[in-house]
Amino acid sequence: MTEPVDADAASALARLVRSEGRAVVATLTRQLGDLGRAEDAVQEAALQALEAWAHQGVPPNPRAWLLRTARHRAIDRIRREQARPDKESEAVRTLEREPDQPSDSVVHDDLLRLVFTCCHPALAPDVQVALSLRTLCGLTTVEVARAMLVGEAAMAKRLTRARQKIAVAAIPYRVPPDHELPDRLATVATTVYLVFNEGYAATAGDDHLRTSLCEEAIRLARLLLDLLPGEPPLQGLLALMLLQHARSAVRIDAAGDVVLLADQDRSRWDPAAIQEGVVLVGEGLRRTPGRPDPFVVQAAIAACHDLAPTYADTDWAAVVSWYDVLLTVQDTPVVRLNRAAAIAERDDPEVALALLDELTGLERYPFWHASRAELLARLARAAEAADAARTALALDVSTPLARRLQRLAGAGPDRA
Amino acid sequence: MPQYAALIYSRDVDWSQPEFAADTAEYGAFGQSAAAIIRGGAALYPTATATTVRVHGGKGGDVVTTDGPYAETKEALTGFYLLECDDLDHAIATAAQIPGSWDGAVEVRPVIPMMG
Q1: ipTM of the predicted assembly exceeds 0.90
Q2: What does pTM read for this prediction?
């Protein structure tokens, strides 16, 4: 593929196969009762599709083509394997009776079942993330391994074990009943946000795959919101990711270092993403007048930053108020730390420092020490600031923050 | 329907003693409410009564016994149920009714079906 037109066509084809493939995995998993088997069959069908469609053109109903082909692959494989338990031959009979073109509403439900299975709370969070990337986003095992900074063999083993647990422990393939839905939806949203953070935390600018995880997570959240329209956690999740991703063009500098919010060129933030995020925050808040969803509130805070023309013009009073709201639904030391940082901007560093010093359990958290260093420096308590900066540096911090901390650490007396 | 072992890890005490009558009654209540899906189970004497058996040199080899449980842990295996459930969600919901789940923890493990 040297011609750019061909390359475009090939990638359009790959995208089509990937997005239709996901729906086919969902339907075939229900029909087969086995996620691993369904994925293997769909992968074979997808390879066949890429080859056939490139030469003969895309069939009128690509999903039906993929489902039919994947089903034949699955039946072939089941028949090849000898001494199948009864359940499997039953699966073949069921498969042969299933329609080639399940209705949109059936596919819709199948996709939801797949989401809730991949994000089942009986699976560890990193396993949920890996399964989501592999099964819901359609990344290859190699891509998932690279994205999560795990060796290929280790990732393959992790995915195999996950599918085995789903099968033998009988993790159900269904949409949870209404009374369980809020909790289960929160798990799904958290998993998608973990996918986003895998990409967001990546600072190596050349590793395109890791940063593209942000886009995968956003696509996934859009799919979820399509499947469960108007669900506040999903509105908040999508809004939060859009509002953070809106800054992606200037969040990393040419050297690959993170640029702090105060130093970013705001004219290069993505106004369309910000607008979409702000609208979603509004909808999410309207739907949860009693008890706001934590994702919606975090998105509201991100919106305050995104809507401020400069760092100095940030509406810190609004930011602090949103943190107050967030504390009512998610009271964690990290939320309290972030609130204190906003108080420092709204009021003065002394009040904020007192709030920081009240917090416990953050001794291993570098940002707590970094924030203390920053506030102490502002209060002209250079020696204490240097101590706090050195403690932060001894933990794991990003390069630009480390540079800033080194300046603060150098301002005080040397320890030696 | 899949079967699960619900392995109860809790205080390593002698549940047969009268001082634990209230706890035992709680288990009795669970046993009645879940009778339809309980396929077996037992409460165990404390790990002080356990003997661990190993055969060295393969089947028929030297039998070596040690006084005590296989693994020393703060919370010990104190009992188990064999449950037949619709799926893992059903098994988790059931395990959450076992007193051991608030007195310690309950490990839910799928059982390999017997073939033939």
Answers
A1: no
A2: 0.85
